[in-house]
Design a protein that fits this description.
Elements: E1 2-4, H1 26-37, H2 40-44, H3 46-53, H4 58-81, H5 88-96, H6 99-124, H7 127-130, H8 138-155, H9 157-187, H10 206-219, H11 226-229, H12 239-268, H13 271-275, H14 280-287, H15 294-325, H16 344-357, H17 363-387, E2 397-399, H18 403-416, H19 424-450
Antiparallel strand pairs: 1-2
Amino acid sequence: MSTTGRDADVSPERGDDTPLRRVIGPKLLILFVIGDILGTGIYAATGQVAGKVGGALWLPFVIGFVVAILTAASYVELVGKYPQAAGAALYTQKAFKVPFLTFIIAFMVMCSGLSSASAAARAFSGDYLAEFTGFFPPTLVAILFILALAALNLRGVSESVKTNVVLTLVELTGLLVVLAIGAWAVMAGDGDPSRLGEFQAEGTGYALITSVLGATALGFFAFVGFEDSVNMAEETKDPVRTFPRAIFIGVTVTGTLYVLVALVSSLLVDYRVLEASSGPLLEVVKAGGLAFPPKLFALIALFAVTNSALINIMMASRLCYGMANERILPRGMGRVLPRRRTPIAGILFVSLLAIGLVSTGEIAGLGDTTSFLLLCVFAVVNIAVLVLRRDHVEHRHFRTPTPLPVLGAITALILASPLSDRPANVYIRAGVLLAIGIGLWALNKIVMKVRGEA
């Protein structure tokens, strides 16, 4: 892994060439990445992963970690070359110069963020909240939840990112509690190590392979988030230097935590019990030998899913802003709130879409939809990084070894394919979203033609 270019100080990110405010430093970005990845996936989807693979719950998270690192390396190279908002859409346009493909990729990324935020909203109104009250309709709670996050985003990126830091520390504490309970149980001789090699699928052939791939594809939902951070490039101080360390540290820390939490969960709780719960880690806490208050852990989990939704709403709104600047969406979508310098049009638009998505599915379906959409995007990004090797920039930046994006594209395509034993309704939901995207693309072209902008 190396840098390329002539002068590390000659880089566009060092100037004030963006109307957004550069407030995110190196430490804040690392916490942002960790907080973006941690959250709904590990706190709510672990049980569904266990239901697909069985007691060998740790294996899908190990495979997911490898796939995430491969694609993260491509994102690091691209954000170093092009430190601008819009992420995968920007890279797709620069690599292939096909506006329709660029729009579809951008739309898929935005929809993945919104489906993830919707899954987080559903998780917020599920079993963790039920530890405190069962009097409020879950859908109403989820809608009010998204409106509150929209208000925080409108106030400013500094407030949002600082809130993210607090929530990240809280959710890290929750996972450390789970690991402490696991360590105590092991030392006390509790737990069942035989579960770690137990697979839900019978036999060792095709059924076992599809079971593991299916669990990995769903479990990959827990790893998504690092790609959101590149959409904050125009609000980061010196992004070319800052992003490589932040993304790699973030993915490594979260991947390690995920594998350890999966091991503890499988040791202490039967996978069928985990599968039946929308708050699986709460089951682990209750099964442990330490007297940790379940309500306190439920509160920590609520903070964790809040953090996931907050960052996904932030990502989607910045993506709208970036697409408007690239003229993929109408200029009005790039409108910035004058005093706060936050993308007001993007925040309002994605929040309304998220409210609409809240009623379309449960945590597992929305999480798997998020994974599928992003795996398709990751395949394109891994190919784009190879195509863009012919485009040289003047500043130095990170360069990933060529085999990594090749393997990243292959693994992403495999996990997005029917080999992963994904439910048909996930493909249907994604197809409907793409159909909506194509309709919006056509409408935007008509508007631009009428205005003489095409």
